[in-house]
Every structure is written in C-alpha cells, then in structure tokens.
C-alpha cells in the first residue's frame, strides 16, 4: 500500500519527538518538524513527485539527507531512524510518545524517572486507551503526589 504524505509527516513528527526526548540537537529536532509540515502541505503526493523525477531536496527545508529519508519511507514504508529511536527508549516509551495528549516533555519526564510508581501508573493508564482524559489524569497524579508530601 502506498505511503501517503500524512504518514511520512507523522513519522517525521514522531522522530522529532523522540529526538527531543533523548536530548538531541534542537536544530535537528526542528528540521524534522519542519520537514513534516512541508511534506504534509504538498499539493501532490511525494510518491507522485518521485515518480516524475522531482528532486525533493529542492523543497523548502528539505536537504539531501531528509530527501533520501523520504524516498526510503516511500519505497519501503518504514523509517529506519524512527525504529532505531524507539529501540533506544526503555520499555514502551516509544509507543507512549505517539499517544495523543502526551508531549515530549511529559514523556521525557517518564523516561528520566522510570522508578516512580506514579510514572508507571501514568504510562499504564495512557496505554489503556484513556488518553482523552490525559489532563485530568495528570492533575489527579499531581494532587496525589501533593497529598503524600
């Protein structure tokens, strides 16, 4: 099944979040986010552009390296960097980072303090599909932490 622009953009966004969680260079993080926006806003599919021989590195914010990565995603359906980044994170934080309502800062907090029982419960709660109540869950855990202090 052909990879759509939105899927390429989602992969780049997730890679940017995982890079940010791991404390990578903010310019690199920003480059992936910008590339995601550019690909998502294209009026035609990346696959179509590649089939006509278009040079993706001519797109604003897309250099040769990102153009090669986009080509690889379109040809294989996988993003090797994203797979590698997910493997570097302990447990299932790579998948947790993709959940709606959890930004890189919250996931980084979970990553840096995995021994916290609240973090484990929050991660379990997030994985259970209850992410629509994420803000409420966060405030509940904060109140619980305050009451223990």
Please tell me about this protein's structure.
By secondary structure, the protein is mainly α. The protein folds into two domains: 5-86, DNA polymerase, domain 1; 90-148, no CATH class. 67% of the residues lie in helices and 0% in strands. It has nine helices and no strands. It has helices at 5-21, 26-41, 46-51, 64-76, 80-88, 93-96, 104-112, 117-127, 134-148. Helix 1 (5-21) runs antiparallel to helix 2 (26-41) and helix 8 runs antiparallel to helix 9. The longest helix has 17 residues, at 5-21. The mean pLDDT is 79.
Oligomeric status of the shown chains?
single chain
Helix content: 55-70%
CATH structural fold name of the largest domain:
DNA polymerase, domain 1
Could you state the CATH homologous superfamily of the largest domain? DNA polymerase beta, N-terminal domain-like
The chain-level structural class is mainly alpha
Shape: elongated
Mean pLDDT: 79
Tell me about the largest β-sheet.
none
> What is the rounded Rg?
18 Å
Q: Uncertain runs with pLDDT below 50, 5 residues or more?
A: none
CATH architecture of the largest domain: Orthogonal Bundle
- Element order: H for helix, E for strand: HHHHHHHHH
Provide a count of the helices.
9
The number of distinct β-strands equals: 0
How far apart the termini lie comes to 53 Å
CATH class of the largest domain: Mainly Alpha
**Residue share in β-strands:** under 5%
């Amino acid at each position: 099944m052909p990879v759509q622009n939105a899927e390429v953009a989602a992969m780049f966004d997730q890679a940017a979040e995982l890079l940010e969680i791991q404390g990578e260079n903010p310019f690199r993080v920003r480059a992936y986010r910008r590339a995601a926006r550019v690909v998502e806003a294209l009026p035609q599919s990346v696959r179509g552009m590649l089939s006509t021989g278009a040079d993706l590195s001519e797109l604003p914010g897309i250099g040769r390296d990102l153009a090669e990565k986009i080509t690889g995603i379109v040809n294989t359906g996988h993003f090797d960097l994203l797979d590698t980044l997910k493997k570097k994170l302990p447990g299932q934080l790579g998948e947790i980072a993709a959940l709606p309502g959890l930004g890189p800062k919250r996931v980084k907090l979970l990553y840096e303090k995995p021994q916290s029982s609240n973090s484990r419960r929050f991660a379990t709660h997030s994985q259970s599909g209850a992410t629509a109540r994420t803000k409420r869950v966060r405030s509940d855990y904060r109140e619980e932490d305050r009451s223990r202090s």
